Amino acid sequence: MTTESKLPPPAGPRPTLLRRRAASFGHAVRGVGAALRTEVHLRLHAAAAAAVLGLGLYCGLQRWEWVAVALSVGAVWCAELLNTAIEAVVDLVSPEYHPLAGRAKDVAAGAVLAMALAALAVGGLVFGPYFFGS
């Protein structure tokens, strides 16, 4: 048993549900910020998202097109963030090389690649007609 578990609970009122949710949101924002500072690929995805946003505004996308673009960008970001988390956990539990650790990291990276290719296809379907006609 750790010493932390022997300590009495902190004095004062318990945080409200709203305060706990706000703290949880803060942790999530901190995690995205940490990933942006440390992951080159996430910064590339951020630049691509900004470019797509500008291109969408320039083309005057319809609502359904914005939905497709937003879901694609969000899915790529989610895949990249999950890949980053998986890599961190694998590095923590397996600091030495292990084939299964390598496989886990490769598969997580493959998920990002698959999602990025799907997003590229969506981008082609949405933006293609604006530049190459129907």
Automatic annotation (TrEMBL):
Mn(2+), Zn(2+), Cd(2+) and Co(2+) support activity to lesser extents. It is found in: Cell membrane. The active site is at residue 80. Its cofactor is Mg(2+). Pfam families: DAGK_prokar. CDD domains: UDPK_IM_like (cd14265). One of its GO terms (molecular function) is ATP binding. This is Undecaprenol kinase. It comes from Hymenobacter psychrophilus.
